[in-house]
Write a structure and sequence with these properties.
446 residues; alpha+beta; Heat Shock Protein 90; 2 domains; two-stranded antiparallel ribbon; rod-shaped
């Protein structure tokens, strides 16, 4: 029957088309191609040499073999609906030829039944082919969807790898930038420490002449009383030789009093030196009971005499108003002393600058006062200079900002002062009026 070669050819073509939607096509494509060529060659031989009495059994074997393989091999699972469609037709053809070969006379009695069964099998085959076609369409769509998802997955993986690479590069870049920033920060801290030390040493340098002046006074007393004692000792020796012991006692008493004065002024000089050494060293940060009035008075005089030594024409009136009821307060004396010194030095600078421009009636005046207000101590440093310009008022506590000409200020004095007072849980405020003067106010907790 001519139908079988065409059915075999159709089945193999359909199988290959279905397998293209799966990964099994690589395994079976060559075999299917070989079989398709075999079908064409066998069909041509049948037509040319009229070998249908032999080839019909080959076609039966071919068709049944294809169907059996489809049900045996897992790779052909998707083709089984197609095989179900062809199976009844293939069985009827095989059964009809077997029956005719075994009992040809009897076949004519049941031939019509085979024809009816064949019609039903063809209807079945067509119906199942439609079902198979719908299934194959659904499978193709599913395969396309799966392929699209696979491509999307690969795209996402590629993007993920690309993003990971970018993140890694950015992380490496950020790490490098972080290291650079940390290195810069270390350099800045080192520079800041050097600037702070330079500022401290600069202020100490300004005090050098004042220190010399303050030390000179007690040293003069020490020298004078030492010379007087030398003379008294010689006088006492003469009185001892004369046997005038009453006079010896009087001289001895005078020597003792002079020694006490020498000791007092020696300690005074020692205290000044120690105070300046403390000013030049790094702060220990330890708070100690301190007489703020003594600190304020001492730095006022040191600053004044220091400026006088640098500029003989400099002169200013110093006024003090200390509250004696304050007693001692817990502060880091060298730090707070540095703040007071900075404010006083700035005040003297302000009145000096104004004196250069003002009339002869102008009297430069710097006033420092202390006052206990509830649980706080107020320290005021006031000058009658030109005041601070309004546009600069918001910036005066910023690091490196200065109203002085280039080379005359680092811009760190007030910034460091502000930080020191804040570290004491205090406040540093300023009130100013242009052409009239400035008042800096320090508030410290008792």
């Amino acid at each position: 029957m001519l139908a079988e070669p065409f059915i075999c050819f159709f089945l193999l073509r359909s199988v290959r088309k279905i397998l293209r939607n799966t990964s099994s096509i690589n395994r079976w494509n060559q075999t299917i191609t070989f079989l398709l060529y075999g079908i064409v060659i066998l069909f041509a031989a049948e037509l040319i040499f009229h070998l249908d009495f032999i080839t019909k059994w080959i076609w039966h074997a071919f068709l049944i073999g294809i169907i059996c393989i489809a049900f045996i091999e897992k790779d052909f699972t998707a083709t089984r609906t197609l095989m179900f469609a062809v199976l009844p037709f293939a069985i009827l053809l095989l059964a009809g030829d077997i029956f005719k070969s075994v009992s040809a006379p009897q076949y004519k009695y049941i031939d019509k039944y085979f024809d009816i069964a064949t019609v039903f099998s063809v209807v079945w085959m067509l119906a199942m082919l439609l079902v198979s076609r719908k299934q194959q369409k659904a499978l193709r769509l599913e395969h396309a969807k799966a392929q699209q998802q696979e491509e999307q997955r690969k795209w996402m993986e590629a993007k993920k790898a690309e993003l990971e690479k970018i993140v890694e590069e950015r992380t490496s870049e950020l790490r490098h930038q972080k290291e650079q920033v940390e290195s810069t920060l270390v350099d800045l801290k080192s520079t800041q420490a050097q600037l702070i030390q330079s500022e401290k040493m600069a202020s100490l340098g300004e005090l050098t002449a004042g220190i010399a002046h303050e030390i000179q006074n007690p040293l003069n007393f020490v020298n004078n009383f030492s010379e007087v004692n030398t003379e008294l000792i010689e006088e006492m020796k003469e009185e001892i030789e004369k046997g005038n012991f009453e006079q010896v006692k009087i001289i001895a008493k005078d020597i003792k009093e002079n020694e006490e004065k020498i000791n007092h002024h020696g300690k005074r000089a020692d205290a000044i030196v120690k105070g300046m050494l403390q000013h030049s060293r790094n702060s220990s940060g330890t708070k100690e009971p301190t007489d703020i009035n003594v600190v304020a008075d001492e730095y006022l005089r040191l600053a004044y005499h220091g400026l006088r030594a640098k500029d003989k024409s400099f002169n200013a009136t110093m006024k003090t108003d200390f509250d004696s009821t304050i007693g001692t307060i817990n502060i880091v004396s060298q730090d707070v002393g540095r703040v007071i010194l900075n404010l006083i030095t700035n005040a003297f600078y302000a009145v000096t600058e104004k004196k250069k421009q003002a009339s002869a009636e102008y009297e430069p005046t710097v006033t420092i006062s202390t006052k206990k207000i509830n649980n706080k101590v107020e320290i005021k440093v006031k000058d009658n200079g030109n005041g601070i310009p309004e546009k600069a008022l918001d910036k005066i506590f910023q690091p490196f900002f200065t109203t002085k000409p280039t080379g005359q200020g680092t811009g760190l004095g007030l910034s460091l002062s502000y930080d020191i007072i804040k570290a004491h849980n205090g406040e540093l405020k300023v009130k100013t009026k242009e052409k009239e003067g400035t008042v800096f106010i320090i508030l410290l907790p008792v």
